[in-house]
């Protein structure tokens, strides 16, 4: 049995694509996935956003990160996976703006109290978010973005997926990732992404 740790920022489309593939394949192989929050907003705190779009993305990252921290404080770490699935369906697939009203509905879909949406504008959760983010950097051993994946205790930046693999390709990728994770000499493999993934509703 393989154990995965998946560190994600909820606004990252590459992480969302990887998470849906990983959740599906781990389930098919009776492997486990533990979900963890990291933060692109925290990662980029000392950098000026390159565009208004990036500024909005980082603002959404921080506000959703606070909600995840509130959910963990209320219901424990087991709340992360269901909330990530619910947020991802709304944000990445439906393209919903993450307003307090939408986040309240999303929390209910995840089996959580709707009032946790109030955490979006509560900066008292920022320290917990920074701690969660720092944990992702510590396990990687260097500065890294979203996602970071641990495979039986060995952590890598990625996989960065521009779509959600399916069928034989999904199975082959899963086998390859597990093999790479078990290869002590393996460090990194990279090519251009070809653009952000898009998801149909």
3D structure, described in words:
This protein has helices spanning 13-28, 40-43, 52-75, 80-93, 100-109, 126-140, 167-181; strands at 3-8, 32-37, 148-151, 154-157. The protein is an alpha+beta fold and 201 residues long. The protein is globular, with a radius of gyration of 16 Å.
Concise structural overview:
The protein has 201 residues and is of the alpha+beta class.
Q: Main beta sheet: strand number and arrangement?
A: 4 strands, mixed
N-to-C SSE series? EHEHHHHHEEH
Return residue spans where pLDDT drops below 50 for at least 5 consecutive residues. none
The percentage of residues in β strands lies in 5-15%
Task: Provide the helix percentage.
Answer: 40-55%
Distance between the termini: 33 Å
- Strand order within the widest beta sheet: 2-1-3-4
Query: What average pLDDT do the residues reach?
Result: 96
Total number of helices: 7
Cα-atom Rg, whole angstroms?
16 Å
Determine the structural class based on helices, strands and strand pairing: alpha+beta
Shape: globular
How many runs of DSSP E, i.e. beta strands?
4
Q: What's the arrangement of secondary structure elements?
A:
Layout: E1 3-8, H1 13-28, E2 32-37, H2 40-43, H3 52-75, H4 80-93, H5 100-109, H6 126-140, E3 148-151, E4 154-157, H7 167-181
Parallel strand pairs: 1-2
Antiparallel strand pairs: 1-3, 3-4
Provide the descriptors you would attach to this structure in a database record:
201 residues, alpha+beta, four-stranded mixed sheet, 7 helices, 49% helix, 10% strand, globular
